[in-house]
Write a structure and sequence with these properties.
Elements: H1 7-16, H2 22-31, H3 38-48, E1 58-60, H4 61-68, H5 72-80, E2 87-88, E3 94-97, H6 98-106, H7 113-117, H8 121-128
Antiparallel strand pairs: 1-3, 2-3
Length: about 130
């Protein structure tokens, strides 16, 4: 029998998904009063499109889009067109390494060069380090 995930659990899980391992997430959830097995956490992360390994120097398309004030499908489109190199996390989610993002910003495609140049340089330096 499975117990439905609460909104608070899901919010906590999404906060921790990119920074902690499944075991660390299970421990932190337990400290907050939620009891989930490591397998349940790994399955939920997979269903939500997260990797079960922490990705400290990687970004999802939605994280990049949020920082650049763009729609996530714009970033996904760049990946699908081959402009931005990424690995597939799940069916609809890609993982972009910071060095690939840096390479993209240094040499953007001609068709979107003006759009990229209009982005605040501080935001770009925040993303690529």
């Amino acid at each position: 029998m499975s117990i439905k995930w609460t909104e608070e659990e899901l919010d906590t899980l999404e906060e921790m998904a990119d920074m902690f391992t499944v075991k660390q997430i299970a421990f932190r959830l337990k400290r907050r009063g939620y009891y989930r097995t490591e397998l349940a956490i790994a399955c939920k992360l997979y269903k939500l499109g997260y990797s079960i390994r922490p990705t400290l120097d990687n970004y999802s398309c939605s994280e990049i889009a949020k920082s650049l004030c763009l729609h996530p499908t714009t970033i996904t489109k760049w990946v699908r067109q081959g402009w931005l190199k990424a690995k597939k996390r799940s069916i609809h989610c890609y993982q972009v390494r910071s060095q690939d993002l840096k390479r993209f910003f240094q040499n953007p495609p001609a068709s979107i060069r003006k759009r990229i140049m209009a982005i605040d340089p501080q935001v770009i330096s925040y993303l690529v380090g």
